[in-house]
């Protein structure tokens, strides 16, 4: 956790030297307009850095029990890095196999985003079905040679277990998945019901890869919900923020961990694309802590990686969990509500004939 305060002994060290330097700088600034402008720019930059550090601290403490286990969520005040329409990503150094629907030797682009979008364009309607559900792109001029720009569009036999040809640092390909309607839906099973979650591999491919790893294990030992906070009187039933109300606590979310025994979770890179909406499933920092939002948190901008969304018809299950008995706690001076009894959960794949669920 960032420490915004400066130790007193550092503050006092060399104060006389500092005063002389400031006095000297003042004389130079008064006689040199260009130096004066430079000093102003430096002061503005330092002010900005301190502001970002403060916002970072406030946001991270709202999701982390202790400073020793804090993660790295971005500042609430960060500008939007990209529009959601530009979110089409893959995983580097990975080559998917499968039946080709477009041959890369005759189908080329300048970027992996364009290749991803070409696959996405083969989905009819807003959410499939998709004639293309995976893509492979070669984007390094030096490493790819004559294959540079090749974009292979493919169809998998099983989108939740895509066929992999190779992976590793020596692989020059970037690959990604696209889930159409009724595809890419997993079940988060609890004793209070199953939350059906549509995965978003085009937004968060590294995150979805980890979820697919959990599916292969057929268990999620250690996964559970441990925090529950309802919408209170701060958001309406559709997740819209009430005018002039505060933004928490409560923070309108349920939080848990997907740290399963036996699963290897490498640090997931920040893949923030869409803002947090009601039903968004997102990591806290780089995982494995995650949360499901019960409200639209526009005030969080794109500070968290959203890797899935709960289907609307299942949000009542999330609301039920949020109303279970809790006890107050304080995480780094932020008031939170933790469940009196943590709720175990399992990640299950949903059969296609039962997954024709809409967003």
Automatic annotation (TrEMBL):
It comes from the Eukaryota. GO terms for molecular function: peptidyl-prolyl cis-trans isomerase activity. The chain crosses the membrane at residues 38-59. Coiled coil: none annotated. The keyword Membrane applies. Keywords: Membrane, Transmembrane, Transmembrane helix. Residues 1-30 are annotated as: Disordered. It holds the Pfam family Pro_isomerase. Residues 186-339 form the PPIase cyclophilin-type domain. InterPro entries: Cyclophilin-like_dom_sf, Cyclophilin-type_PPIase_dom. Residues 1-16 have a biased composition (Polar residues). Residues 17-30 have a biased composition (Basic and acidic residues). PANTHER family: EXPRESSED PROTEIN (PTHR46873:SF1). This is PPIase cyclophilin-type domain-containing protein. It comes from Stephania cephalantha. The lineage of its organism: Eukaryota, Viridiplantae, Streptophyta, Embryophyta, Tracheophyta.
């Amino acid at each position: 956790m960032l420490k915004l305060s400066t130790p007193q002994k550092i503050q006092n060290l060399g104060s006389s030297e500092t005063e002389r330097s400031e006095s000297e700088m003042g004389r130079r600034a008064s006689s040199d307009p260009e130096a004066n402008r430079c000093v102003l720019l430096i002061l503005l930059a330092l002010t900005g850095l301190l502001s970002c550090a403060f916002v970072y601290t406030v946001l991270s403490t709202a999701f982390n029990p202790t400073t020793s286990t804090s993660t790295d969520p971005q500042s609430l005040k960060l500008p939007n890095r990209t529009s959601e329409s530009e979110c089409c990503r893959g995983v580097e150094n990975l080559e998917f196999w499968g039946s080709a629907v477009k041959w890369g030797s005759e189908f080329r682009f300048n970027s992996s985003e364009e290749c991803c979008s070409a696959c996405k364009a083969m989905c009819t309607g807003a959410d499939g079905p998709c004639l293309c559900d995976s893509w492979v792109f070669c984007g390094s001029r030096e490493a790819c040679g004559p294959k540079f720009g090749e974009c292979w569009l493919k169809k998998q036999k099983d989108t939740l277990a895509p066929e992999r040809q190779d992976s590793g640092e020596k692989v020059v390909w970037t690959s990604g998945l696209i889930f159409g309607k009724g595809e890419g839906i997993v079940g988060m099973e609890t004793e209070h019901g199953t939350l059906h979650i549509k995965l978003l591999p085009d937004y968060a491919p590294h995150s979805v890869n980890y979820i697919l790893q959990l599916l292969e294990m057929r268990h999620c030992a250690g996964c559970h919900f441990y925090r529950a906070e309802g919408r209170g009187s701060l958001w309406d039933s559709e997740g819209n923020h009430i005018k002039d109300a505060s933004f928490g606590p409560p923070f309108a979310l349920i939080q848990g961990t997907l740290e399963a025994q036996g699963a290897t979770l490498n640090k997931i890179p920040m893949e923030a694309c869409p803002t947090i909406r009601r039903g968004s499933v997102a990591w806290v920092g780089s995982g494995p802590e995650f949360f499901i939002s019960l409200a639209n948190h526009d005030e969080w901008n794109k500070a968290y990686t959203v890797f899935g969304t709960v289907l609307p018809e299942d949000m009542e299950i999330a609301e039920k969990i949020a109303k279970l008995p809790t006890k107050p706690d304080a995480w780094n001076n932020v008031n939170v509500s933790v469940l009196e009894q943590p709720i175990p959960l399992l990640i299950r794949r949903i059969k296609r004939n039962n997954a024709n669920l809409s967003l």
